[in-house]
Specification:
Blueprint lengths: L2 H9 L6 H13 L4 H14 L3 H13 L14 E5 L7 H10 L5 E5 L9 H5 L11 H11 L1 E5 L6 H11 L7 H14 L4 E8 L8 H17 L3 E8 L7 E3 L1 H11 L5 H17 L6 H13 L2 H12 L5 H4 L9 E6 L4 E6 L1 H11 L15 E4 L6 E2 L4 E7 L5 H10 E4 L9 E5 L1
Parallel strand pairs: 1-4, 2-3, 4-5
Antiparallel strand pairs: 5-13, 6-9, 7-11, 8-10, 8-12, 9-11
Helix pairs in contact: 1-3, 2-4, 2-8, 4-9, 4-10, 5-11, 5-12, 5-14, 9-10, 12-13, 16-17
The protein binds uracil.
Pfam families: Glycos_trans_3N (PF02885), Glycos_transf_3 (PF00591), PYNP_C (PF07831)
Family: Belongs to the thymidine/pyrimidine-nucleoside phosphorylase family.
Cofactor: K(+)
Length: 433
């Protein structure tokens, strides 16, 4: 088999066989196929697309290029969730305990963040003492015992994707639906869960800006999951503004804990219950979405879901006093108001700019060696549709520096205010099964 023939076949719109896809992925991972041929093929895929079968095969080949996590020692149906990424997205900290509180095992492997705000692990490390590095045995023991553990990704998962994603990033081939879907799903499948709920974000602050693109990506991923034997559901949720009111690390943990204590931050609570309900149905613990939703909501009201968060923290060595008394979480030295320069209604909040403003404060990493400052962040006082008067605070910056002019500029850039009344955006656009 020759790589040249595979490139030409795809360039001319042909359908690649399983053997050809494995030849490419195995050869590229080993270093036998050079970057220039891999980039020619990914560009051909960008223009010609892939069939559902080709996409599923590509994904499986990327899973097979490295290690997979064997969760078979965990009793019960394991469910996982994945978000395509958004600003203020602390849903994992709510959904994990919530789902675990009805007895469903959640074995969560997470990563750190680059750019914007921190990743799941960075946010969790706002809690003093909390360990995210653990042996595979300890991880499995914790899930069996407490139904929930969150750990840093171990092992060499989907190395083909790692190499290919880096190549796509510099060759203009990231924006290809089969390649994105295969890339995300290969990592999820290698992590070993039986079922997966995908939170596919849509809007100005999302990877996919239009609803059409988000739905197409969701469909591709759901097809891959189902084709490869994992029940997969995608929730298309809005990312035209940050989720909830808090953006940062410790303040996001605080907001997640408050939701589990029963506070009603409308968009965040609703989306969390939505995702958790689909997970609970996929785990076959409830037969209908409505039944699952009711049981999960009841576990917020009766304190079981919050208790599940406490157990997670204690079992991983974290200081649970910080969650019992949320004022003990890390805090920045200064609170700086960013004020509206006119009266009206908030019509847009560019989530990416808010994320960058938080990063400037130290909540995210500009380079991978940067150290996260857990106490800094942003609290939004106004969201889309809210009335605001000139001079009123749009957000509060939590900063360790007395002046934060770069972040203030970014926030001012992010907010648009109009005279006309504005509707609140729809939160959940579609469910794809
Ligand atoms: N995220 C991924 O993991 N892969 C892509 O291709 C795009 C976004």
């Amino acid at each position: 088999m020759r790589m040249y023939d595979i490139i030409v076949k795809k360039r001319d719109g042909g359908e690649l066989t399983k053997e050809e896809i494995y030849f490419f992925i195995e050869g590229y991972t080993k270093g036998d196929i050079p970057d220039y041929q891999a980039s020619a093929l990914t560009m051909a895929i960008y223009f010609q697309g892939m069939t559902q079968e080709e996409t599923a095969t590509l994904t499986q080949a990327m899973v097979d290029s490295g290690e997979t996590i064997d969760l078979s020692a965990i009793k019960g149906h394991k469910v996982d969730k994945h978000s395509t990424g958004g600003v203020g997205d602390k849903v994992t900290f709510i959904v994990g305990p919530l789902v675990a509180s009805v007895g469903i095992p959640v074995a969560k492997m997470s990563g750190r963040g680059l750019g914007h705000t921190g990743g799941t692990l960075d946010k969790l490390e706002s809690i003093e003492g909390l360990q995210i590095e653990m042996t595979k045995e300890k991880f499995i023991e914790n899930v069996n015992k407490h139904k929930l553990a969150v750990a840093g990704q171990t092992g060499n998962l989907a190395p083909a994707d790692k190499k290919l994603y880096a190549l796509r990033d510099v060759t203009g081939t990231v924006d290809s639906l089969p390649l994105i879907a295969g890339s995300i799903m290969s990592k999820k499948l290698a992590s070993g869960a039986d079922s997966i709920v995908l939170d596919v974000k849509t809007g100005s602050g999302a990877f996919m800006k239009t609803l059409d693109d988000s739905e197409n990506l969701a469909r591709e991923m759901v097809n891959i999951g189902n084709n490869l034997g994992r029940n997969t559901v995608a929730v298309i949720s809005d990312m035209n503004q940050p989720l909830g009111f808090e953006v940062g690390n410790a303040n996001e943990i605080r907001e997640a804990a408050e939701i589990l204590q029963g506070k009603n931050v409308e968009d965040l609570r609703k989306l969390s219950l939505e995702i958790a309900s689909h997970m609970a149905v996929l785990a076959e613990v409830f037969s209908t979405y409505e039944e699952a939703y009711q049981a999960l909501e009841a576990n917020i009201e009766n304190g079981k879901a919050f208790q599940s968060l406490r157990t997670l923290i204690e079992s991983q060595g974290g200081n649970v006093n910080m969650i019992d008394d949320l004022d003990k979480l890390p805090k920045a030295k200064y609170d700086i108001e960013v004020k509206a320069n006119k009266s009206g209604y908030v019509s847009a909040i560019d989530a990416e700019s808010i994320g960058i403003a938080a990063m400037y404060l130290g909540a995210g990493r500009a380079t991978k060696d940067d150290v996260i400052n857990h106490g800094v962040g942003i609290t939004l006082n106004k969201k889309i549709g809210d009335r605001v008067e000139e001079g009123e605070a749009l957000v509060i910056l939590h900063s360790d520096e007395e002046s934060a002019s770069d972040s203030i500029g970014k926030v001012q850039e992010a907010y648009a205010i109009t005279e006309e009344k504005v509707e609140k955006p729809t939160l959940i656009h579609n469910i794809i099964k």
